[in-house]
Structure formats: structure tokens, C-alpha cells
Amino acid sequence: MGRTLMIPIHLFVHLFWGFFWTILIGALVSLIGILKLLLPIPLVQRGLSSLANATFRIWGYAMSLLFQLSGTMQWHINGDLALEKSRWYMIICNHQSWVDILVLMHLSRRHMPMPRFFLKQQLFWIPFVGLGCWALDMPFMKRYSKDKIAKKPHLQGKDIATTRRSCEKFRHLPTTVINFCEGTRFTPEKHQKKHSPYTYLLPPKAGGTAFSLQIMGKQFDAILDITIVYPENGGKPVIWDLLSGRLDSVTVDIETLPVTDDLIGDYGNDPAFRQHFQHWLNQRWQLKDKKIAELKAG
């Protein structure tokens, strides 16, 4: 009963904290991005990119503290966090909630280079957030239906070109490239609609991961296969549990994988490699699905 009465207070505190730091850091990073546009000198732009990255890390620390505002949060992190901020990593991760992004920020604030997400085009128009992400060189992806591509064939491969341009920029600054391979957040409705062969996951999409590896190749020091599991909450959104102070724990499993030669190839034009890479990612998803079942069983 007492915990229920505290929900309005938790909501106010969490929302104020989240909005304050997001607006502040978003505005600062956006200003740095504008300076990058006005000063098209490579050395200056690299320095400004490093400054934007350091400012972004402050937001990571602020979002990490967001989990602690209710005073009940416990982290259960399995796996290797012996990582370095001066290296390059790729994360493949399951996706259930917007809270996943905050969990990854919590992990990266100390142990990894700051992450870059592949974002939907619509997010660019969110005040402070969109411009800040643009200034950090995060790629905005615009999805086209098969019907639209059939009518306008020149749209084919637009996302590939966006991925290529963004990954080229990542070469100059240690970065963690994050791929939510399912392409969207898991819901029971999507699970049923897609006829997913997995219990807790949607089928993974291999293209973005494969193209990132193709472009950056061996510059990635490792692939981090991350699995996030939240407590059962009766089907309520995880973000509601976080904001209302009811998210008591998060379990994160991290498996570090080498970037082997067989994972780098021409996904768009080599059918044999495409089939091989899809098989590899599907196998990873089978293992991830089994791991989630084990973590939920306790």
C-alpha cells in the first residue's frame, strides 16, 4: 500500500530527472554539432566530436543514476566487462523496451566507448534528442515498404548507404555500434504476427549487423552479445516500472565473441555469404532464447 502511494512521487522525480538531463545534454551536444557544421576543418571537427562524445558520457552517468532514484535497484551482470574505452565494439542485443537503451548506457558509461544507435528517421524531430543524436553522427534509418521500392527502385539500398556513411565516421573515434537485430521492440502481438520460432525473441534481421562488419571489418575488437532480462511484471511496460519506482532488478548477460574472417563479407551481393551470416545470427538467437529461459527460471 505504501509503495503504491509513492508512485506519483517516483513518477515526478524520475520524469524530472530524465527530462532535465536529456534537454541539457541534448542542447549542449546540438551546439557542438552546429560548430562542426560551421568549422569544416577535419582536425577541428575531430576535436569537437571528442568533446560531444565526452558530453554524451555525462548523459550516460545521469541515466545510470535514474535507476537508483527509487533506492531499490539491483544489477545482476554476468560475463566479462574487462573492456576498454579506447577500442571499438559491436553489440547485438534483444529489444523489449526503451529501457534497454538506458541499460546499455549504464554498462557503457565506465566500461566501453560511448554507443551509437541506428535510429528511426522519425526520431530526428524529437526536440533536443534528434539534433543531439545527429551531432553524434548516429545514423537515421528510413524504412521503405516493398511496394514503395517496387514503384521507386532508386530507394533500394538507401539504408545501406546510410550505414556506410555513419560507419566511416566511426572509424576516427572509439565507438560501440549497437544493433537491436530484431528491428523493433518485442511484444506478444509482434511475436505472433511474425510467427517467431523463438519463445522470447523476434526473428533477427541480419543486414545492418553484416553491413557494419563489412564496412568496419577488423576495426571491431569484439562482438558483444548482450541479453537483457527484466522481472516479470504482468505484461506492464518496463518503462512504467522504472518511472514508478517498481523496477527492482535487471539481469544482463554479456558474451564476448571474436570478429572472425567468416563474419566479414559482401552481404548484399554474395548469396553464399548472406546465407552463412543469417545462419550464424539465427544460431546466436537460438542460444539467446535459451539463455533468457534459464535466467527467467532463476
TrEMBL record:
A single GO molecular function term of this UniProt record: acyltransferase activity
Acyltransferase listed as a keyword = yes
Source species, domain of life: Bacteria
InterPro entries assigned:
Plipid/glycerol_acylTrfase
- Per UniProt, residues of the Phospholipid/glycerol acyltransferase domain are 89-231
Any one GO CC term of the record: plasma membrane
Q: Which UniProt keywords apply?
A: Acyltransferase, Membrane, Transferase, Transmembrane, Transmembrane helix
Q: What does UniProt give as the signal peptide span?
A: none
Give one Pfam family, short name only. Acyltransferase
The record lists the membrane-crossing segments as: 12-38
Please name the NCBIfam families in this protein's record: PRK14014.1
**This protein is called what?**
Acyltransferase
